[in-house]
Amino acid sequence: MARPTAASRALSQNFLADRATAERFARLAAPRARPVPLLLEVGAGKGALTAPLARRCRELRAYEIDPRLVSVLRGRFSGTPQVRVVGGDFLAAHPPRTPFSVAGNVPFSRTAAVVDWCLRAPALTDATLLTQLEYARKRTGDYGSWTLLTVRTWPRYEWRLLGRVGRHCFRPVPRVDAGVLRVERRETPLLDAAGYRSWLDLVELGFCGAGGSLRASLRRAHPRRRVDAAFRAARLDPGVLVGEVAPERWLRLHAELTR
After folding, report:
1. Which of the chain's ends, N or C, has fewer CB atoms near its CB within 10 Å?
2. 137-146: long-range contacts (C-beta < 8 A, 24 or more apart)?
3. Does 73 carry a binding-site annotation?
4. 161 is in an annotated binding site
5. What is the distance between the alpha carbons of residues 97 and 94, in angstroms, rounded to a whole number?
6. Predicted pLDDT at 12
C-alpha cells in the first residue's frame, strides 16, 4: 500500500485510483446528452478524472495546486485540445462570467471552502464533488437532519447525494469513504428576490437557538398564534428540533409566516 508523502498530507491529497469509479463519476458530473460547454475541475491531481471528464465537455480547465503534478498533467493532455491545465489554487480563480460547471476530487480539508466558492459564483450551474462521505450526507439530509447552509440555499440550489465511493478506491487510502455530492442551481428559483431575503431572515432566526427550540426562536419575531398555525400547516410537532425540519417544511413555514 502506498504511503502518503509529506507533500500529499500537507495538500490533503488522496488520488482516485479506480478507473470504473472515475468513469461513473464523469457520467454523474456531466449527465447531459450534449457536451458541457465549460467545466472547471478542482484538484486534477494525476488526471484520473480529467480524462473521462474531457470526453464530456467542450472546454475543461483543470486546476492543480501541486507544481510537481502540473507538468505531468500538461504532458499527458498536450494532445487534448479542449483541456487547459491551470497551475495554481482553484480557490484563487475568478469565476467565469458564462455558465459553467465544477467537478472534482476535493481535498477533504478544503471541502467547505470549495463549496462556498461554488455558491458565490453567479454563473455556476452545478457542482459535482467527491467529498468526505460524512460531509455529503450532512449537507443532503441523509442523516435525517439538515444543516443551516443547505436550508439557507435551498430555494436556489438542490443538494443531492449521488453515491458512495469506498476509501480503497484512493491512493493513499484515506481513513473514511467518500461521497458524490451534487449541488445544482435551480433553473427557476423557488422564491423571488424579496421572498429570498425574508427566507434568509426566517432561517437565521430559526437556527439561532434562542429559547431552546425552533418554535420558541420563531416566536421572538412572530406572534404565538401565527407560529402555532404555521407549525400545524407544515405538519410539524411543536417540540421538533431545528435540524430535523426538512427544506420543504421550511417553505411551508415561510409561506405561512410571511403571508
Report:
1. N
2. 137/161, 137/179, 139/115, 139/181, 140/181, 141/246, 141/247, 144/244, 145/241, 145/243, 145/244, 146/243, 146/244, 146/245, 146/246, 146/247
3. no
4. no
5. 9
6. 63
Name the residue with cell 480547465.
61
Sequence-ordered list of residues with C-beta below 8 angstroms from that of 254, at least 6 positions apart, any chain: 191, 195, 198, 199, 202
What are the residues whose beta carbons fall under 8 Å from the beta carbon of 197, sequence distance 6 or more? none
Q: Is 105 annotated as a binding residue?
A: yes
Q: Is 16 annotated as a binding residue?
A: yes
List the domains of the chain with CATH numbers. 6-185 (3.40.50.150), 193-257 (1.10.8.100)
C-alpha dihedral, 135 to 142 to 189 to 99, nearest 10°: 40
Q: CA 161, CA 97: separation in Å to the nearest integer?
A: 27
The annotation status of 64 as a binding-site residue, yes or no, is yes
Give mean pLDDT in consecutive 10-residue pieces for the chain, a chain of 259 residues: 42 87 97 92 97 97 97 97 98 98 96 98 98 98 98 98 98 97 98 98 96 94 97 97 97 96
Determine the pLDDT at residue 174: 96
Q: By the 8 A CB rule, do 177 and 13 touch?
A: no
Cα–Cα dist 151/232, whole Å: 20
DSSP 185-205: E-SS-SS-HHHHHHHHHHHHH
Asked whether residue 237 is marked as a ligand-binding residue, the answer is no
